[in-house]
């Protein structure tokens, strides 16, 4: 469900709950590890909203590229959502299949793109 919404370029937000066994008032929630909380959750709801591009984004990016200005897309979106936004604004070509999918990783100092291979 969430993947289908992301493929449409929608921003998604999931609402879930989890009962934590052996909970007591002596436990400070800040001391819990993410691995203790972020698993085995019960999905309550999913919302999706369309976040429209600003007017003329695609033509602006095209102008930058013609002027040899490098354009990067930095986002915290889920990979599929980011991909659809990249296609919509002309940063990425339409993909043909799963083998063309964007890798959902952050660059590190050792794998930052150089000017010659920027999208």
Walk me through the structure:
The chain has 2 domains: 2-49, no CATH class; 57-106, no CATH class. Strands 1-2 form a two-stranded antiparallel ribbon. It is of the alpha+beta class and 119 residues long. 6% of the residues are buried. The chain contains 4 helices and 2 strands, in the order αβαβαα. The chain is elongated and about 60 Å long. Mean pLDDT is 77; it is low at 111-119.
Defining key terms:
two-stranded antiparallel sheet; alpha+beta; elongated; 2 strands; 119 residues; 4 helices; 2 domains
What is the overall shape?
elongated
Number of strands: 2
Strand content: 5-15%
Give me the side-by-side strand order of the main sheet.
1-2
Determine the number of helices (DSSP H or I, runs of at least 4 residues): 4
Overall helicity: 25-40%
**Which class of secondary structure composition applies to the elements?**
alpha+beta
- Average pLDDT over all residues: 77
State the distance separating the first and last CA atoms.
29 Å
Radius of gyration: 19 Å
Tally of structural domains: 2
Low-confidence stretches: 111-119
Order of helices and strands: HEHEHH
Largest sheet: 2 strands, antiparallel
């Amino acid at each position: 469900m969430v993947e289908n919404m992301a493929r449409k370029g929608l921003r998604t937000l999931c609402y879930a709950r989890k009962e934590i066994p052996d909970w007591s008032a002596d436990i400070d929630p800040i001391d819990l590890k993410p691995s203790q909380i972020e698993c085995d959750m019960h999905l309550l709801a999913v919302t999706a909203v369309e976040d429209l591009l600003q007017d003329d984004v695609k033509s602006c990016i095209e102008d930058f590229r013609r002027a040899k200005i490098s354009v990067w897309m930095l986002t915290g979106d889920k990979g599929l959502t980011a991909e659809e936004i990249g296609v919509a604004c002309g940063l990425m070509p339409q993909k043909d299949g799963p083998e063309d999918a964007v890798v959902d990783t952050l660059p590190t100092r050792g794998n930052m793109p150089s000017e010659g291979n920027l999208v």
